[in-house]
Amino acid sequence: MFKLLKKWWKYTTAKLTGSFNERADPKVQLEQAITEAQSQHKRLKEQAVNVIAGQKQSEIRLNGKMSELEKLNANARQALIMAADAEKAGDAAKAAQYTTAAEAIANQLIQVERDVESLKSMVLESTEAADAAKAAVQQNSRLLQERIAEKSKLVSQLEQAKMQEEMNVAMDQLNETVGDDVPTLKEVEEKIQARYAKAKASAELTETSVASRVLEVEQATANVEAHSRLSELRAELGLDAASEAAPQVEGGTST
């Protein structure tokens, strides 16, 4: 049962994450990625500063111990000289006191020498750590600049993609019916073609009417010429009188 719930939870989480990533604005996601990278670089620089500061503090402490060591050496030498002088002067008690002081200084000297050696090792290690921290900061800075440049490139591609998507939507709207008040390009094209076809048909009809009238005129002229020629032939044959009298015979009115 627990395994089943665990699988269901993982499936649901993956589904919600995928849905969120699908609907999220890529430009905002890029800005978030760069902001996170900049924050990471800032934290890395702060850590590097602490490491370098530790190395500087070690160097300061080493320099202090070196000065102390030099001072103790000088004091030990001086105590031995004064003990020797007191011994030469026959003052055994003072000589013993200076010798005791020299021994105390020598003990301090030994401890300071140990501290110096320890600090030298610490300075060496901290210097290596500081160098590594500086290199890490430089490398991360270079990666950050590359990511910023990549972000600018991706944002430019994103804007181009958005522009192309808007152009695609506009073209789709031109080819689709979007409402009675906004005719599509296809509808306007069909309307223009219909008007052109109607105008062309009217022009052809007008041309046909004129041609018919011309044919009628030509036919009438031809008929007149035919009648005239027939009249001339009748006159040559002397049939004009007969042709004129014939109607009287046919009508039954002749005597």
Structure report:
By secondary structure, this protein is mainly α. The chain is 91% helix and 0% strand. The chain has helices spanning 2-23, 26-88, 92-174, 185-237, 240-251. Helix 2 (26-88) runs antiparallel to helix 3 (92-174).
Write down the secondary-structure element order.
Answer: HHHHH
Task: Please report which band the strand proportion falls in: under 5%, 5-15%, 15-25%, 25-35%, 35-45% or over 45%.
Answer: under 5%
What's the end-to-end separation, in Å? 140 Å
Using the CA coordinates, give the radius of gyration.
Answer: 61 Å
Tally of DSSP helical segments: 5
Give unreliable regions as ranges: 247-255
Helix content: over 70%
* Residue-averaged pLDDT: 84
Short description:
It is built from five helices and no strands.
Structural features:
5 helices; mainly alpha; 255 residues; rod-shaped; disordered C terminus; 0% strand
Give a topology summary.
Blueprint: H1 2-23, H2 26-88, H3 92-174, H4 185-237, H5 240-251
